[in-house]
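Record type: ASSEMBLY
Status: queued
Input:
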Amino acid sequence: MTTLMEIKDLKVGPDNNQINSILDNISFQVKQGETLAVVGESGCGKSMTALSIMGLLPQNIKLSSGSIIFDGKDLTSFTTKKMNQIRGKDMAMIFQEPLTSLNPSFTIGNQIAEVFKYHTNYNAAEIKKRSIEVLQKVKIPDPEEKLKAYPHELSGGMRQRVMIAMALACNPKILIADEPTTALDVTIQAQILDLILELQKDFNMSVVMITHDLGVVAETCQRAIVMYAGQIVEEGKVEDIFEQPLHPYTRGLMLSAPRLGSPKEKLHVIDGMVPDRENMPKGCRFNPRCEFATDKCFESEPKLEEIQEGRRVRCWNKLL
Amino acid sequence: MFKFIFRRLLVTLPTMFLTISIIFFGLRILPGDPAVAMLGDNATPAAVEALREEMGLNEPLWKQYLAYLGDIVQADFGESFISGESVSAQLFAVFPDTLNLTFFGIIFGCVIGIPLGIISALKRNTKIDNFLRFISIIGLSVPPFLLGIYMILAFSLKMAIFPSMGTGEGFLNQIYYLILPSLTIGLILSASVMRYTRSSMLDEINQDYIRTAWAKGIPEKLVIYKHVLRNTLIPVVTVIGLQMTGLLSGAVITESIFSRPGLGSLAIGAITTRDFPVLQGCLVLFAIAVMVVNLLVDISYSIINPRIRPS
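Status: finished
Output:
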Protein backbone atom coordinates (compact mmCIF):
# COMPACT_ATOMS: atom_id res chain seq x y z
CA MET A 1 0.00 0.00 0.00
CA THR A 2 1.29 3.45 -0.85
CA THR A 3 1.50 6.18 1.77
CA LEU A 4 -1.08 8.93 1.38
CA MET A 5 -0.15 11.07 4.33
CA GLU A 6 2.93 11.25 6.47
CA ILE A 7 3.04 13.15 9.70
CA LYS A 8 6.50 13.83 11.03
CA ASP A 9 7.51 15.10 14.48
CA LEU A 10 4.37 17.15 14.90
CA LYS A 11 4.56 19.48 17.89
CA VAL A 12 1.54 21.52 18.87
CA GLY A 13 1.08 23.80 21.86
CA PRO A 14 -0.31 27.05 23.19
CA ASP A 15 1.35 29.89 21.31
CA ASN A 16 2.81 31.43 24.46
CA ASN A 17 4.87 28.51 25.69
CA GLN A 18 6.75 25.84 23.84
CA ILE A 19 7.75 23.58 26.69
CA ASN A 20 4.49 21.90 27.64
CA SER A 21 3.20 20.95 24.25
CA ILE A 22 -0.22 19.42 23.67
CA LEU A 23 1.18 17.11 21.02
CA ASP A 24 4.72 15.85 21.42
CA ASN A 25 6.59 14.59 18.36
CA ILE A 26 3.67 12.82 16.77
CA SER A 27 4.73 10.83 13.71
CA PHE A 28 2.67 8.33 11.74
CA GLN A 29 1.61 7.42 8.25
CA VAL A 30 -1.77 6.91 6.68
CA LYS A 31 -1.78 4.46 3.79
CA GLN A 32 -4.01 4.60 0.76
CA GLY A 33 -7.39 3.01 1.39
CA GLU A 34 -6.74 1.90 4.98
CA THR A 35 -8.67 2.63 8.15
CA LEU A 36 -6.38 3.83 10.89
CA ALA A 37 -7.60 4.09 14.46
CA VAL A 38 -6.33 6.76 16.84
CA VAL A 39 -7.22 5.59 20.34
CA GLY A 40 -6.88 7.14 23.77
CA GLU A 41 -8.57 8.75 26.74
CA SER A 42 -10.15 12.19 26.64
CA GLY A 43 -7.48 14.85 26.56
CA CYS A 44 -4.72 12.65 25.13
CA GLY A 45 -4.49 14.76 21.96
CA LYS A 46 -6.52 12.69 19.49
CA SER A 47 -8.72 15.52 18.38
CA MET A 48 -5.84 17.99 18.34
CA THR A 49 -4.02 15.67 15.96
CA ALA A 50 -7.05 15.68 13.66
CA LEU A 51 -7.49 19.43 13.86
CA SER A 52 -3.82 20.07 13.09
CA ILE A 53 -4.08 17.92 9.98
CA MET A 54 -7.10 19.92 8.82
CA GLY A 55 -5.46 23.22 9.76
CA LEU A 56 -8.33 23.95 12.12
CA LEU A 57 -6.49 24.39 15.41
CA PRO A 58 -8.12 26.85 17.82
CA GLN A 59 -6.72 30.38 17.61
CA ASN A 60 -4.55 30.28 20.71
CA ILE A 61 -2.96 26.96 19.79
CA LYS A 62 -0.19 26.75 17.23
CA LEU A 63 1.76 24.15 15.39
CA SER A 64 5.32 24.76 16.52
CA SER A 65 7.22 22.22 14.45
CA GLY A 66 6.93 19.15 12.28
CA SER A 67 5.44 18.48 8.89
CA ILE A 68 2.29 17.00 7.42
CA ILE A 69 3.04 15.62 3.98
CA PHE A 70 -0.13 15.00 2.01
CA ASP A 71 0.04 14.02 -1.65
CA GLY A 72 3.69 15.06 -1.70
CA LYS A 73 3.04 18.56 -0.32
CA ASP A 74 3.74 19.89 3.16
CA LEU A 75 0.45 21.22 4.51
CA THR A 76 2.11 23.09 7.37
CA SER A 77 3.52 25.58 4.86
CA PHE A 78 0.10 26.25 3.30
CA THR A 79 -1.78 29.54 3.66
CA THR A 80 -5.46 29.52 4.63
CA LYS A 81 -6.37 30.16 1.02
CA LYS A 82 -4.33 27.21 -0.20
CA MET A 83 -5.69 24.98 2.59
CA ASN A 84 -9.21 25.91 1.54
CA GLN A 85 -8.57 24.33 -1.86
CA ILE A 86 -7.80 21.02 -0.17
CA ARG A 87 -10.18 21.06 2.81
CA GLY A 88 -13.56 19.69 1.86
CA LYS A 89 -12.18 18.41 -1.44
CA ASP A 90 -9.24 16.04 -0.96
CA MET A 91 -9.45 15.98 2.81
CA ALA A 92 -12.67 15.99 4.80
CA MET A 93 -13.66 15.71 8.42
CA ILE A 94 -16.72 14.74 10.40
CA PHE A 95 -17.20 15.69 14.01
CA GLN A 96 -18.36 14.29 17.27
CA GLU A 97 -21.44 16.46 17.78
CA PRO A 98 -23.88 16.03 14.92
CA LEU A 99 -26.45 18.17 16.74
CA THR A 100 -24.35 21.31 16.67
CA SER A 101 -22.17 20.73 13.63
CA LEU A 102 -24.65 22.04 11.07
CA ASN A 103 -25.51 25.72 10.86
CA PRO A 104 -29.06 26.10 12.25
CA SER A 105 -29.84 29.06 10.00
CA PHE A 106 -29.37 27.42 6.61
CA THR A 107 -31.06 24.53 4.86
CA ILE A 108 -29.31 21.21 4.37
CA GLY A 109 -29.34 21.84 0.61
CA ASN A 110 -27.67 25.21 1.03
CA GLN A 111 -24.92 23.74 3.21
CA ILE A 112 -24.20 20.83 0.89
CA ALA A 113 -24.28 23.08 -2.18
CA GLU A 114 -21.46 25.21 -0.75
CA VAL A 115 -19.04 22.32 -1.01
CA PHE A 116 -19.76 21.86 -4.72
CA LYS A 117 -19.80 25.59 -5.35
CA TYR A 118 -16.22 26.09 -4.19
CA HIS A 119 -14.62 22.84 -5.27
CA THR A 120 -16.25 22.10 -8.63
CA ASN A 121 -17.47 23.96 -11.71
CA TYR A 122 -21.01 22.61 -11.56
CA ASN A 123 -23.91 24.90 -12.40
CA ALA A 124 -26.95 25.23 -10.15
CA ALA A 125 -28.86 22.32 -11.72
CA GLU A 126 -25.86 19.98 -11.52
CA ILE A 127 -25.23 20.99 -7.92
CA LYS A 128 -28.79 20.09 -7.00
CA LYS A 129 -28.56 16.77 -8.82
CA ARG A 130 -25.27 15.91 -7.16
CA SER A 131 -26.59 16.99 -3.75
CA ILE A 132 -29.51 14.60 -4.10
CA GLU A 133 -27.06 11.87 -5.13
CA VAL A 134 -24.86 12.26 -2.08
CA LEU A 135 -27.88 12.24 0.22
CA GLN A 136 -28.97 9.02 -1.48
CA LYS A 137 -25.52 7.60 -0.93
CA VAL A 138 -25.75 8.13 2.80
CA LYS A 139 -29.22 6.56 2.70
CA ILE A 140 -31.32 9.52 3.63
CA PRO A 141 -34.93 8.92 2.64
CA ASP A 142 -36.65 11.58 0.49
CA PRO A 143 -33.41 13.34 -0.41
CA GLU A 144 -35.08 15.97 -2.57
CA GLU A 145 -37.37 17.02 0.28
CA LYS A 146 -34.54 16.91 2.83
CA LEU A 147 -32.58 19.49 0.85
CA LYS A 148 -35.17 22.03 1.94
CA ALA A 149 -35.08 20.97 5.59
CA TYR A 150 -33.31 22.87 8.34
CA PRO A 151 -30.98 20.94 10.68
CA HIS A 152 -33.38 21.19 13.62
CA GLU A 153 -35.94 19.25 11.64
CA LEU A 154 -33.67 16.18 11.48
CA SER A 155 -32.65 13.63 14.11
CA GLY A 156 -29.07 13.27 15.37
CA GLY A 157 -28.41 10.21 13.22
CA MET A 158 -29.80 11.96 10.15
CA ARG A 159 -27.68 15.02 10.83
CA GLN A 160 -24.55 12.88 11.10
CA ARG A 161 -25.50 11.35 7.73
CA VAL A 162 -25.78 14.84 6.29
CA MET A 163 -22.32 15.63 7.72
CA ILE A 164 -20.96 12.49 6.05
CA ALA A 165 -22.68 13.42 2.79
CA MET A 166 -21.10 16.86 2.94
CA ALA A 167 -17.69 15.39 3.73
CA LEU A 168 -17.87 12.88 0.88
CA ALA A 169 -19.41 15.25 -1.67
CA CYS A 170 -16.14 15.73 -3.56
CA ASN A 171 -14.74 12.19 -3.17
CA PRO A 172 -11.99 13.06 -0.71
CA LYS A 173 -8.81 10.98 -0.54
CA ILE A 174 -8.88 10.99 3.22
CA LEU A 175 -11.69 11.22 5.74
CA ILE A 176 -10.98 12.15 9.34
CA ALA A 177 -13.78 10.93 11.59
CA ASP A 178 -13.51 12.43 15.07
CA GLU A 179 -15.61 10.22 17.34
CA PRO A 180 -18.34 10.07 14.69
CA THR A 181 -20.63 7.84 16.71
CA THR A 182 -20.02 8.91 20.30
CA ALA A 183 -23.06 11.15 20.51
CA LEU A 184 -25.41 8.67 18.87
CA ASP A 185 -27.62 5.82 20.08
CA VAL A 186 -26.06 2.37 19.95
CA THR A 187 -28.28 1.17 17.10
CA ILE A 188 -27.55 4.29 15.08
CA GLN A 189 -23.82 3.95 15.87
CA ALA A 190 -23.63 0.63 14.06
CA GLN A 191 -25.48 2.03 11.06
CA ILE A 192 -23.19 5.04 10.79
CA LEU A 193 -20.03 2.91 11.11
CA ASP A 194 -21.28 0.51 8.44
CA LEU A 195 -22.06 3.46 6.23
CA ILE A 196 -18.57 4.92 6.62
CA LEU A 197 -16.94 1.56 5.82
CA GLU A 198 -19.18 0.98 2.83
CA LEU A 199 -18.46 4.41 1.40
CA GLN A 200 -14.77 3.96 2.11
CA LYS A 201 -14.74 0.92 -0.20
CA ASP A 202 -16.77 2.75 -2.84
CA PHE A 203 -14.46 5.72 -2.89
CA ASN A 204 -11.23 3.86 -2.03
CA MET A 205 -10.38 6.52 0.52
CA SER A 206 -8.34 6.40 3.69
CA VAL A 207 -10.13 6.87 6.99
CA VAL A 208 -8.59 8.12 10.22
CA MET A 209 -10.99 6.95 12.91
CA ILE A 210 -10.54 8.83 16.14
CA THR A 211 -12.22 7.03 19.01
CA HIS A 212 -12.00 5.96 22.61
CA ASP A 213 -14.20 2.96 21.87
CA LEU A 214 -12.17 -0.23 21.41
CA GLY A 215 -15.26 -1.93 19.98
CA VAL A 216 -15.22 0.52 17.11
CA VAL A 217 -11.51 -0.11 16.57
CA ALA A 218 -11.90 -3.89 16.47
CA GLU A 219 -14.91 -3.59 14.20
CA THR A 220 -13.63 -1.13 11.62
CA CYS A 221 -9.88 -0.58 11.62
CA GLN A 222 -6.79 -2.31 10.25
CA ARG A 223 -4.12 -0.39 12.13
CA ALA A 224 -4.20 1.53 15.37
CA ILE A 225 -2.23 4.22 17.14
CA VAL A 226 -2.58 4.47 20.91
CA MET A 227 -2.03 7.94 22.34
CA TYR A 228 -1.35 8.99 25.90
CA ALA A 229 -0.76 12.52 27.23
CA GLY A 230 0.06 13.95 23.82
CA GLN A 231 2.39 11.16 22.72
CA ILE A 232 2.06 8.02 20.68
CA VAL A 233 2.73 5.09 23.04
CA GLU A 234 1.99 2.19 20.76
CA GLU A 235 1.30 1.48 17.11
CA GLY A 236 0.54 -1.69 15.21
CA LYS A 237 -1.96 -3.85 13.40
CA VAL A 238 -5.25 -4.01 15.25
CA GLU A 239 -5.13 -7.77 15.71
CA ASP A 240 -1.57 -7.60 17.08
CA ILE A 241 -2.46 -4.88 19.54
CA PHE A 242 -5.54 -6.72 20.73
CA GLU A 243 -3.71 -10.03 20.98
CA GLN A 244 -0.56 -8.79 22.61
CA PRO A 245 -0.55 -5.19 23.81
CA LEU A 246 3.05 -4.15 24.45
CA HIS A 247 2.52 -0.99 26.45
CA PRO A 248 1.06 -1.23 29.97
CA TYR A 249 -1.38 1.56 29.06
CA THR A 250 -2.70 -0.30 26.04
CA ARG A 251 -3.01 -3.41 28.16
CA GLY A 252 -4.98 -1.44 30.74
CA LEU A 253 -7.29 -0.13 28.04
CA MET A 254 -7.94 -3.66 26.77
CA LEU A 255 -8.65 -4.98 30.25
CA SER A 256 -11.01 -2.13 31.06
CA ALA A 257 -13.23 -2.87 28.05
CA PRO A 258 -16.22 -5.06 28.96
CA ARG A 259 -16.24 -8.44 27.27
CA LEU A 260 -18.96 -10.97 26.57
CA GLY A 261 -18.58 -14.30 28.33
CA SER A 262 -17.05 -13.06 31.58
CA PRO A 263 -19.97 -11.28 33.18
CA LYS A 264 -19.09 -11.77 36.84
CA GLU A 265 -15.62 -10.31 36.58
CA LYS A 266 -15.08 -6.78 37.84
CA LEU A 267 -13.71 -4.46 35.13
CA HIS A 268 -10.08 -3.46 35.31
CA VAL A 269 -9.46 0.17 36.19
CA ILE A 270 -6.41 2.22 35.28
CA ASP A 271 -5.81 4.14 38.50
CA GLY A 272 -5.23 7.85 38.50
CA MET A 273 -5.80 10.53 35.91
CA VAL A 274 -4.16 11.71 32.72
CA PRO A 275 -1.49 14.18 33.93
CA ASP A 276 -2.16 17.78 33.04
CA ARG A 277 0.27 19.64 30.84
CA GLU A 278 1.54 21.86 33.61
CA ASN A 279 2.70 18.94 35.77
CA MET A 280 4.04 16.29 33.40
CA PRO A 281 5.81 13.59 35.40
CA LYS A 282 9.53 13.21 34.89
CA GLY A 283 10.55 10.21 32.82
CA CYS A 284 7.78 8.19 31.26
CA ARG A 285 4.50 10.16 31.24
CA PHE A 286 2.56 7.08 32.26
CA ASN A 287 4.73 6.23 35.29
CA PRO A 288 2.34 7.39 38.09
CA ARG A 289 -0.35 5.03 36.83
CA CYS A 290 1.80 2.13 35.65
CA GLU A 291 1.82 -1.11 37.60
CA PHE A 292 5.06 -2.22 35.91
CA ALA A 293 7.01 0.96 36.53
CA THR A 294 10.66 0.60 37.60
CA ASP A 295 13.24 3.18 38.71
CA LYS A 296 14.28 3.77 35.15
CA CYS A 297 10.76 4.84 34.25
CA PHE A 298 10.96 7.73 36.71
CA GLU A 299 14.37 8.85 35.51
CA SER A 300 14.29 9.04 31.76
CA GLU A 301 11.69 9.17 29.07
CA PRO A 302 11.52 6.10 26.80
CA LYS A 303 11.74 6.62 23.02
CA LEU A 304 9.15 5.31 20.60
CA GLU A 305 11.05 2.38 19.13
CA GLU A 306 10.23 0.12 16.24
CA ILE A 307 10.17 -3.51 17.34
CA GLN A 308 9.25 -4.97 14.00
CA GLU A 309 7.90 -3.43 10.84
CA GLY A 310 4.86 -1.31 11.60
CA ARG A 311 4.97 -2.10 15.30
CA ARG A 312 6.18 0.65 17.60
CA VAL A 313 6.07 1.07 21.35
CA ARG A 314 7.28 3.65 23.90
CA CYS A 315 8.16 1.72 27.06
CA TRP A 316 11.19 0.62 29.09
CA ASN A 317 9.46 -2.56 30.24
CA LYS A 318 7.65 -3.76 27.16
CA LEU A 319 5.26 -6.60 27.87
CA LEU A 320 6.90 -9.05 25.49
CA MET B 1 -47.28 33.47 8.58
CA PHE B 2 -50.48 35.54 8.39
CA LYS B 3 -52.02 33.40 11.05
CA PHE B 4 -48.98 34.10 13.21
CA ILE B 5 -49.29 37.86 12.69
CA PHE B 6 -53.03 37.74 13.35
CA ARG B 7 -52.48 35.80 16.57
CA ARG B 8 -49.84 38.26 17.68
CA LEU B 9 -52.23 41.15 16.99
CA LEU B 10 -54.93 39.52 19.10
CA VAL B 11 -52.49 39.15 21.97
CA THR B 12 -51.76 42.87 21.72
CA LEU B 13 -55.36 43.87 22.40
CA PRO B 14 -55.44 43.26 26.17
CA THR B 15 -52.02 44.92 26.49
CA MET B 16 -53.37 47.87 24.57
CA PHE B 17 -56.43 48.12 26.81
CA LEU B 18 -54.31 48.03 29.96
CA THR B 19 -51.91 50.64 28.65
CA ILE B 20 -54.73 52.98 27.66
CA SER B 21 -56.31 52.63 31.10
CA ILE B 22 -53.02 53.22 32.90
CA ILE B 23 -52.42 56.32 30.80
CA PHE B 24 -55.85 57.70 31.69
CA PHE B 25 -55.65 57.13 35.43
CA GLY B 26 -51.98 58.00 35.60
CA LEU B 27 -52.67 61.41 34.15
CA ARG B 28 -55.50 62.07 36.60
CA ILE B 29 -53.15 61.38 39.50
CA LEU B 30 -50.77 64.10 38.27
CA PRO B 31 -50.92 67.20 40.44
CA GLY B 32 -52.12 70.40 38.78
CA ASP B 33 -55.44 71.49 37.36
CA PRO B 34 -55.75 71.97 33.61
CA ALA B 35 -58.23 74.80 34.14
CA VAL B 36 -55.75 76.64 36.39
CA ALA B 37 -52.96 75.94 33.94
CA MET B 38 -55.03 77.53 31.18
CA LEU B 39 -56.32 80.55 33.06
CA GLY B 40 -53.23 81.27 35.08
CA ASP B 41 -52.68 81.44 38.84
CA ASN B 42 -54.60 84.70 39.21
CA ALA B 43 -57.91 83.42 37.81
CA THR B 44 -60.99 83.63 40.02
CA PRO B 45 -62.31 80.35 41.47
CA ALA B 46 -65.58 80.93 39.62
CA ALA B 47 -63.86 81.20 36.26
CA VAL B 48 -61.87 78.04 37.00
CA GLU B 49 -65.01 76.19 38.02
CA ALA B 50 -66.80 77.28 34.85
CA LEU B 51 -63.93 76.10 32.68
CA ARG B 52 -63.76 72.75 34.52
CA GLU B 53 -67.44 72.26 33.82
CA GLU B 54 -66.92 73.14 30.17
CA MET B 55 -64.03 70.70 29.81
CA GLY B 56 -66.04 67.88 31.39
CA LEU B 57 -63.65 67.59 34.35
CA ASN B 58 -66.48 67.76 36.88
CA GLU B 59 -68.05 64.54 35.66
CA PRO B 60 -67.39 61.46 37.84
CA LEU B 61 -64.07 59.78 36.92
CA TRP B 62 -65.72 56.59 35.66
CA LYS B 63 -67.90 58.57 33.27
CA GLN B 64 -64.86 60.40 31.94
CA TYR B 65 -63.09 57.06 31.59
CA LEU B 66 -65.91 55.42 29.64
CA ALA B 67 -66.24 58.42 27.35
CA TYR B 68 -62.48 58.32 26.79
CA LEU B 69 -62.54 54.60 25.96
CA GLY B 70 -65.48 55.04 23.60
CA ASP B 71 -63.71 57.82 21.78
CA ILE B 72 -60.43 55.93 21.45
CA VAL B 73 -62.15 52.98 19.82
CA GLN B 74 -63.22 55.46 17.14
CA ALA B 75 -59.65 56.82 16.98
CA ASP B 76 -60.94 60.06 18.44
CA PHE B 77 -58.76 61.60 21.14
CA GLY B 78 -61.01 64.62 21.65
CA GLU B 79 -60.00 68.24 21.31
CA SER B 80 -57.08 70.03 22.85
CA PHE B 81 -57.96 71.93 26.02
CA ILE B 82 -55.75 74.76 24.86
CA SER B 83 -56.21 75.21 21.15
CA GLY B 84 -59.49 73.39 20.70
CA GLU B 85 -58.05 71.58 17.66
CA SER B 86 -58.75 67.91 17.10
CA VAL B 87 -56.02 65.88 18.83
CA SER B 88 -56.04 63.21 16.12
CA ALA B 89 -55.32 65.83 13.50
CA GLN B 90 -52.42 67.18 15.56
CA LEU B 91 -51.03 63.69 16.11
CA PHE B 92 -51.20 62.77 12.47
CA ALA B 93 -49.57 66.04 11.52
CA VAL B 94 -46.46 65.43 13.65
CA PHE B 95 -46.24 61.63 13.83
CA PRO B 96 -44.39 61.27 10.50
CA ASP B 97 -41.66 63.58 11.80
CA THR B 98 -41.04 61.42 14.85
CA LEU B 99 -41.22 58.28 12.73
CA ASN B 100 -38.63 59.66 10.31
CA LEU B 101 -36.36 60.67 13.15
CA THR B 102 -36.54 57.25 14.81
CA PHE B 103 -36.21 55.39 11.52
CA PHE B 104 -33.11 57.27 10.48
CA GLY B 105 -31.79 56.93 14.02
CA ILE B 106 -32.06 53.14 13.75
CA ILE B 107 -30.47 53.16 10.30
CA PHE B 108 -27.52 55.17 11.61
CA GLY B 109 -27.35 52.95 14.70
CA CYS B 110 -27.09 49.79 12.58
CA VAL B 111 -24.88 51.20 9.83
CA ILE B 112 -22.38 52.41 12.43
CA GLY B 113 -22.85 49.79 15.15
CA ILE B 114 -22.90 46.49 13.25
CA PRO B 115 -19.72 46.97 11.15
CA LEU B 116 -17.81 48.33 14.15
CA GLY B 117 -18.99 45.34 16.19
CA ILE B 118 -17.76 42.97 13.49
CA ILE B 119 -14.37 44.70 13.27
CA SER B 120 -14.09 44.69 17.04
CA ALA B 121 -14.85 40.95 17.21
CA LEU B 122 -12.52 39.99 14.35
CA LYS B 123 -9.68 42.06 15.85
CA ARG B 124 -10.44 41.12 19.42
CA ASN B 125 -7.99 42.13 22.11
CA THR B 126 -6.01 44.30 19.71
CA LYS B 127 -5.56 48.07 19.92
CA ILE B 128 -8.41 48.58 17.46
CA ASP B 129 -10.76 46.49 19.57
CA ASN B 130 -9.81 48.28 22.79
CA PHE B 131 -10.23 51.66 21.14
CA LEU B 132 -13.68 50.77 19.78
CA ARG B 133 -14.80 49.39 23.12
CA PHE B 134 -13.63 52.55 24.86
CA ILE B 135 -15.57 54.72 22.40
CA SER B 136 -18.66 52.55 22.88
CA ILE B 137 -18.55 53.05 26.63
CA ILE B 138 -18.62 56.79 26.02
CA GLY B 139 -21.56 56.29 23.67
CA LEU B 140 -23.39 54.28 26.31
CA SER B 141 -22.88 56.86 29.02
CA VAL B 142 -23.51 60.13 27.18
CA PRO B 143 -27.13 61.28 27.56
CA PRO B 144 -28.84 62.22 24.25
CA PHE B 145 -29.39 65.86 25.21
CA LEU B 146 -25.70 66.39 25.88
CA LEU B 147 -24.64 64.70 22.65
CA GLY B 148 -27.29 66.74 20.80
CA ILE B 149 -25.89 69.99 22.15
CA TYR B 150 -22.33 69.00 21.24
CA MET B 151 -23.48 68.02 17.76
CA ILE B 152 -25.07 71.44 17.31
CA LEU B 153 -21.94 73.10 18.64
CA ALA B 154 -19.67 71.17 16.33
CA PHE B 155 -21.62 70.77 13.10
CA SER B 156 -23.93 73.78 13.17
CA LEU B 157 -22.04 76.52 14.97
CA LYS B 158 -18.37 75.72 14.30
CA MET B 159 -18.45 73.97 10.95
CA ALA B 160 -21.84 75.21 9.78
CA ILE B 161 -22.47 72.04 7.78
CA PHE B 162 -25.89 71.13 9.13
CA PRO B 163 -28.84 73.24 10.32
CA SER B 164 -29.42 73.21 14.06
CA MET B 165 -33.21 73.43 14.01
CA GLY B 166 -36.36 72.98 11.96
CA THR B 167 -37.46 70.35 9.45
CA GLY B 168 -36.81 71.83 6.03
CA GLU B 169 -38.98 71.63 2.95
CA GLY B 170 -39.02 69.15 0.11
CA PHE B 171 -37.84 65.57 0.33
CA LEU B 172 -34.07 66.00 0.06
CA ASN B 173 -34.04 69.12 2.17
CA GLN B 174 -36.01 67.34 4.89
CA ILE B 175 -33.49 64.52 4.94
CA TYR B 176 -30.72 67.12 5.19
CA TYR B 177 -32.42 68.60 8.27
CA LEU B 178 -32.89 65.10 9.69
CA ILE B 179 -29.23 64.11 9.58
CA LEU B 180 -28.00 65.83 12.71
CA PRO B 181 -30.87 64.85 15.08
CA SER B 182 -31.06 61.28 13.80
CA LEU B 183 -27.29 60.94 14.01
CA THR B 184 -27.58 61.96 17.65
CA ILE B 185 -30.00 59.12 18.30
CA GLY B 186 -28.08 56.76 16.01
CA LEU B 187 -24.70 57.30 17.64
CA ILE B 188 -26.10 56.45 21.04
CA LEU B 189 -27.89 53.39 19.69
CA SER B 190 -24.78 52.30 17.79
CA ALA B 191 -22.83 51.94 21.03
CA SER B 192 -25.07 49.16 22.34
CA VAL B 193 -25.52 47.64 18.88
CA MET B 194 -21.74 47.48 18.55
CA ARG B 195 -21.25 45.80 21.90
CA TYR B 196 -23.96 43.23 21.26
CA THR B 197 -22.68 42.51 17.76
CA ARG B 198 -19.19 42.00 19.12
CA SER B 199 -20.11 39.61 21.91
CA SER B 200 -22.64 37.73 19.81
CA MET B 201 -20.08 37.33 17.04
CA LEU B 202 -17.37 36.06 19.42
CA ASP B 203 -19.90 33.53 20.63
CA GLU B 204 -20.69 32.41 17.12
CA ILE B 205 -17.09 32.12 15.93
CA ASN B 206 -16.51 29.30 18.41
CA GLN B 207 -19.59 27.30 17.45
CA ASP B 208 -19.16 23.78 16.11
CA TYR B 209 -20.91 24.61 12.87
CA ILE B 210 -18.42 27.36 12.13
CA ARG B 211 -15.67 24.75 12.42
CA THR B 212 -17.67 22.63 9.97
CA ALA B 213 -17.81 25.57 7.59
CA TRP B 214 -14.00 25.92 7.77
CA ALA B 215 -13.61 22.18 7.28
CA LYS B 216 -15.56 22.46 4.02
CA GLY B 217 -12.86 24.70 2.63
CA ILE B 218 -15.11 27.60 1.76
CA PRO B 219 -13.48 31.05 1.63
CA GLU B 220 -12.91 32.95 4.86
CA LYS B 221 -15.19 35.79 3.76
CA LEU B 222 -18.09 33.41 3.27
CA VAL B 223 -17.52 31.78 6.64
CA ILE B 224 -17.60 35.16 8.37
CA TYR B 225 -20.28 37.00 6.43
CA LYS B 226 -22.62 34.11 5.80
CA HIS B 227 -22.24 31.52 8.53
CA VAL B 228 -21.18 33.72 11.42
CA LEU B 229 -23.04 36.93 10.67
CA ARG B 230 -26.48 35.45 10.11
CA ASN B 231 -26.53 33.94 13.58
CA THR B 232 -24.81 36.94 15.11
CA LEU B 233 -27.65 39.21 14.06
CA ILE B 234 -30.41 37.27 15.82
CA PRO B 235 -29.73 38.70 19.31
CA VAL B 236 -28.78 42.08 17.81
CA VAL B 237 -32.22 42.46 16.23
CA THR B 238 -33.81 41.75 19.60
CA VAL B 239 -31.66 44.38 21.24
CA ILE B 240 -32.62 46.98 18.66
CA GLY B 241 -36.27 46.12 19.27
CA LEU B 242 -35.83 46.47 23.01
CA GLN B 243 -34.05 49.78 22.52
CA MET B 244 -37.07 51.12 20.64
CA THR B 245 -38.71 52.42 23.81
CA GLY B 246 -35.48 54.14 24.72
CA LEU B 247 -35.25 55.51 21.20
CA LEU B 248 -38.71 57.03 21.41
CA SER B 249 -37.93 58.78 24.65
CA GLY B 250 -34.62 59.80 23.08
CA ALA B 251 -36.66 61.24 20.23
CA VAL B 252 -38.70 63.29 22.69
CA ILE B 253 -35.56 64.96 24.02
CA THR B 254 -33.85 65.21 20.66
CA GLU B 255 -36.90 66.90 19.17
CA SER B 256 -36.93 69.61 21.76
CA ILE B 257 -33.16 70.20 21.45
CA PHE B 258 -33.36 70.53 17.68
CA SER B 259 -36.69 72.40 17.86
CA ARG B 260 -38.35 69.90 15.58
CA PRO B 261 -42.08 69.27 15.57
CA GLY B 262 -42.96 65.73 16.60
CA LEU B 263 -44.71 63.61 19.15
CA GLY B 264 -42.06 64.52 21.69
CA SER B 265 -42.41 68.27 21.39
CA LEU B 266 -46.17 67.88 21.37
CA ALA B 267 -46.12 65.77 24.52
CA ILE B 268 -43.74 68.09 26.37
CA GLY B 269 -45.94 71.07 25.49
CA ALA B 270 -49.02 69.19 26.67
CA ILE B 271 -47.37 68.28 29.98
CA THR B 272 -46.65 71.89 30.88
CA THR B 273 -50.23 72.98 30.13
CA ARG B 274 -51.89 69.84 31.59
CA ASP B 275 -53.53 69.36 28.21
CA PHE B 276 -54.89 65.88 29.00
CA PRO B 277 -56.41 64.99 25.61
CA VAL B 278 -53.22 65.81 23.71
CA LEU B 279 -51.03 64.06 26.26
CA GLN B 280 -53.27 61.00 26.22
CA GLY B 281 -53.13 60.96 22.44
CA CYS B 282 -49.33 61.15 22.41
CA LEU B 283 -48.94 58.41 25.02
CA VAL B 284 -51.38 56.07 23.32
CA LEU B 285 -49.59 56.59 20.04
CA PHE B 286 -46.23 55.90 21.74
CA ALA B 287 -47.68 52.71 23.20
CA ILE B 288 -49.01 51.59 19.83
CA ALA B 289 -45.65 52.36 18.23
CA VAL B 290 -43.81 50.22 20.78
CA MET B 291 -46.21 47.32 20.27
CA VAL B 292 -45.98 47.54 16.49
CA VAL B 293 -42.20 47.53 16.72
CA ASN B 294 -42.28 44.48 18.96
CA LEU B 295 -44.45 42.74 16.40
CA LEU B 296 -42.05 43.71 13.62
CA VAL B 297 -39.12 42.39 15.68
CA ASP B 298 -40.94 39.08 16.16
CA ILE B 299 -41.63 38.84 12.45
CA SER B 300 -38.08 39.71 11.42
CA TYR B 301 -36.87 37.28 14.07
CA SER B 302 -38.67 34.42 12.41
CA ILE B 303 -37.26 35.46 9.07
CA ILE B 304 -33.64 35.36 10.28
CA ASN B 305 -34.07 32.41 12.62
CA PRO B 306 -35.66 29.36 11.01
CA ARG B 307 -35.82 27.53 14.33
CA ILE B 308 -38.69 29.71 15.53
CA ARG B 309 -40.40 30.06 12.18
CA PRO B 310 -44.09 29.23 12.61
CA SER B 311 -44.93 26.28 10.42
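Annotation: Chain B has two domains: 2-73, 87-308.
Annotation: The two ends of chain B are 8 Å apart (CA to CA).
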